[in-house]
Specification:
This protein has about 180 residues and is α+β, with helices and mostly antiparallel strands. The chain contains three helices and eight strands, in the order E-H-E-E-H-E-E-E-E-H-E. The strands form two sheets. The protein has a five-stranded antiparallel beta sheet with strand order 1-4-7-2-8. A three-stranded antiparallel beta sheet has the order 3-6-5.
Amino acid sequence: MSLRKASAYSKKHVVAYTRISRKKGKAFVKVVPPQKIVKFTMGNEQGFRDGKFPYHYSVFADENCQIRHNSLEACRQYINKRLETDFAGQYFFRVIPFPHHIQRENKMLTGAGADRMQTGMQLSFGKATGKAAIVKKGSGIFFIATQTEKAMQLARGLFHKVKPKLPCRTRTISEVVKEQ
């Protein structure tokens, strides 16, 4: 089953009502889809806590949007694979948003004669198809900390390559943290 395009879900102001309750009769969403993002922190976390990675590079959202969990996972896999092959153990990478929002789809039949079989908008709450992270303007999406300036240049190139996978405009901030 292919995915619907993101514009079907990317409503900037309206958040769909997806109530999950312990009582079956009060829960509108019957099944919560599994999380596609496997890890949220990668690399050498202990080295980051010890302050060994002074070069920080962050990606922030420039507008309110919903980012699907499969989009975040695709970006995560690409960035982590490239960092691991080029700078094994000399980086720290974090995916910041957590997908909580459940996306629904009112499936419609298409083709000849399908109009007589479907119910249209009657009881059109829809079935859960995926999850999304609701990201506000100015909140972080990805964070990388590295040891060298060369690794930071690679991170800048990686974020430029994954930018088309994200549904919103982004801005990046790089900084050098000095030890005290």
